[in-house]
Write a structure and sequence with these properties.
disordered C terminus, mainly alpha, globular
Length: 297
C-alpha cells in the first residue's frame, strides 16, 4: 500500500515538474525576473517549513555552505537557461533538450566519482546526440532555444552529480534550502554587476501570483517530496519516472498552447527515441546493479 501510494506521489511530483515549463510560458516576465522571484519565494517557503513547521536547525558548517553555494549557482543558471529556452523557442524544445543530461552524466559521473566509463551510457548518449542533431536540422528556427536547452541540460547534470557527492552531510531540507538561497545570492550579485537588477521591478501582479504558485506548489513541495519518497522507492524508480517530465510537459503544452507547440513529425520521432534510450539505459543499469549484488564478496 505504501509503495503504491509512493508511486502515485512520485508521478504527481513529476507531473508538477513538467508543468513548470507551462507556467514559464504563461508568465510574461523575462527569464531573469522569473528565476529571481522563483528562487526568492522558494527559499522563503523552505525556511518557514524547516524552522517553524519541522522545527529543525538550519545550521551547517562553513565548508558545507561553500559547497552548497557552488551547487546552488549551477542550479540557478540551470533554471535561468531553461526559462530562456522557453522564452525564445517553446516548451517542447526546452524539454526535449533535457534528454542530453544522459550524455553529460555519462561523461561527468566517471570523473567526479572516479569510476570506469560505462560504454552503454556512452552509446545511449551518442543516440541522443544524433536525435538532437535531427531536431536541430528540422527545427533550425529554434536554434537559440536549442542552445539554451543544451546549457540547461549541462548545468542540470553538474548540479545533480555534485549533489550526489554531498548527500547525507546535512538534512535534505537544509541541502535544498541552502542551494536555492545561495543560488539567489549568486544571481543577485550577477544582476548587480550586469546592471540587470533594476529589471526586478518590472513585474505585474499577475506574474507575481503565478511565480508564487511556481515557487511553492511546483518547486518547494516537489523537491521536498522527492526526498521523502526515497524512503519507499528505489533511486532507479525515481530516476526512471523523472524521465517522464518531458513527456508530461510536451503533451500538456500541445493541448494548452496549440499551434505554437506544433512541431514536425521528425521532432516527435526523435524525442521518442531519446526518451526510450533513457529508459533502456535505466533498465540495463538496474539489471547490472542487481547482478553485482548477487555476486558473493
Amino acid at each position: 500500500m505504501f509503495k503504491n501510494s509512493a508511486l502515485f506521489r512520485l508521478h504527481l511530483i513529476v507531473f508538477l515538474w513538467g508543468f513548470t515549463a507551462i507556467l514559464g510560458k504563461l508568465i510574461h516576465a523575462n527569464a531573469n525576473v522569473l528565476v529571481f522571484y522563483r528562487m526568492a519565494f522558494a527559499a522563503l517557503f523552505l525556511f518557514i517549513f524547516i524552522r517553524f513547521y519541522k522545527k529543525e536547525s538550519i545550521k551547517v558548517s562553513k565548508k558545507l555552505f561553500i559547497q552548497l553555494s557552488i551547487i546552488g549557482g549551477f542550479m540557478a543558471f540551470h533554471w535561468l537557461c531553461f526559462f530562456y529556452s522557453i522564452k525564445v523557442s517553446n516548451v517542447s524544445i526546452a524539454l526535449s533538450c533535457l534528454s542530453l543530461s544522459t550524455l553529460f552524466a555519462s561523461i561527468l559521473e566517471p570523473i567526479i566519482f572516479k569510476r570506469k566509463v560505462d560504454i552503454i551510457e556512452v552509446i545511449m548518449g551518442i543516440v541522443i546526440v544524433l536525435c538532437m542533431g535531427m531536431i536541430f536540422k528540422t527545427e533550425f528556427q529554434y536554434k537559440e532555444g536549442i542552445f539554451y536547452g543544451i546549457l540547461t541540460a549541462l548545468f542540470g547534470t553538474i548540479f545533480s552529480v555534485f549533489n550526489g557527492k554531498i548527500f547525507g552531510k546535512t538534512s535534505s531540507g537544509n541541502i535544498i534550502f541552502y542551494e536555492i538561497f545561495s543560488g539567489l545570492l549568486i544571481l543577485t550579485i550577477f544582476y548587480m554587476v550586469t546592471g540587470q537588477i533594476f529589471q526586478m521591478n518590472e513585474i505585474s501582479g499577475r506574474d507575481l501570483a503565478l511565480i508564487i504558485i511556481l515557487a511553492s506548489i511546483f518547486t518547494a513541495f516537489p523537491m521536498l517530496e522527492s526526498v521523502n519518497l526515497m524512503k519507499y522507492i528505489s533511486p532507479f524508480t525515481l530516476i526512471l519516472t523523472v524521465n517522464l517530465e518531458p513527456v508530461y510537459g510536451i503533451i500538456l503544452a500541445f493541448f494548452i498552447f496549440g499551434a505554437s507547440e506544433e512541431m514536425s513529425p521528425i521532432f516527435y520521432v526523435a524525442s521518442l527515441i531519446m526518451i526510450l534510450a533513457i529508459v533502456v539505459n535505466g533498465v540495463l543499469k538496474s539489471r547490472k546493479n542487481a547482478a553485482v549484488k548477487k555476486v558473493p564478496h
